[in-house]
Amino acid sequence: MDQMFIHYGASYYDPEKFKPITNDPYFTKPQGGLWASPVNARFGWKQWCEQEQYSGCDLDQWFLFTLPGANILRITSVDQLEGLHRFINTMIGNYWVLLDFEELIRGGVDAIWLNLDEEVAGRDPNKRLYYELYGWDCDSILVMNKERISVIDDGKDSRYFN
Questions:
Q1: How, if at all, do strands 72-75 and 111-114 pair?
Q2: 3-state secondary structure of 72
Q3: DSSP secondary structure string, 99-136?
Q4: DSSP 3-state assignment of 8?
Q5: Choosing a second label site near 155 at 20 to 30 A (CA), which of 9, 39, 70, 128?
Q6: What's the helix, strand, coil split of the chain in %, to 5?
């Protein structure tokens, strides 16, 4: 079975609410898309919310989905950021990597999976990947192409959390 992802804050997927991706010239994350975490993430969105005592998301509402046939760019190291489409904002300088998400979509990328779970396992002890993409606080995926989303559960089946 394809990798399952979980989106918190809604009990079902409404494609009408999916906003197209647009670059944000002042931040490492774009506007739009659908954010989620792998169901089996050791440090996904739910764990981050609990650790940070963040109450801006209803963790009791969620849905599961897969991305069959999607071109997923999986980032597990800072080295993988080299050569990716990016733009430079002189105000931010070299502190953060600002990816050109709009260009990545035009190039056929359907989703970007930042796998910080690898970092937790000791692959990046200095947390370089975390700091270069500051704001992607946990193991997460940004779905940029809504046509690839295949919902498999509307938040009622707890068997996926064994």
A1: parallel
A2: strand
A3: B-HHHHHHTT--EEEE-THHHHTTS-TT-HHHHHTTT-
A4: strand
A5: 70
A6: 25, 20, 55
Helices (H) and strands (E) in the chain, counts: 4, 7
Q: Which amino acid type is present at position 127?
A: K
Does residue 56 have a pLDDT over 70?
Answer: yes
22, two tokens: 């647009």
Residue 89 and residue 102: Cα distance in Å, rounded?
16
**Burial (CB count within 10 angstroms: exposed 0-12, middle 13-18, buried 19+), residue 14:** exposed
Spatial neighbors of 119 by CB under 8 A, at least 6 apart, are 127, 129, 130
Task: Give the global pTM.
Answer: 0.88
CA distances to 22, 41, 83, 126 from 80, in Å: 22, 21, 8, 16
76-90 pLDDT, tens digit each: 888 888 777 665 554
Which two three-digit tokens encode residue 155? 């938040």
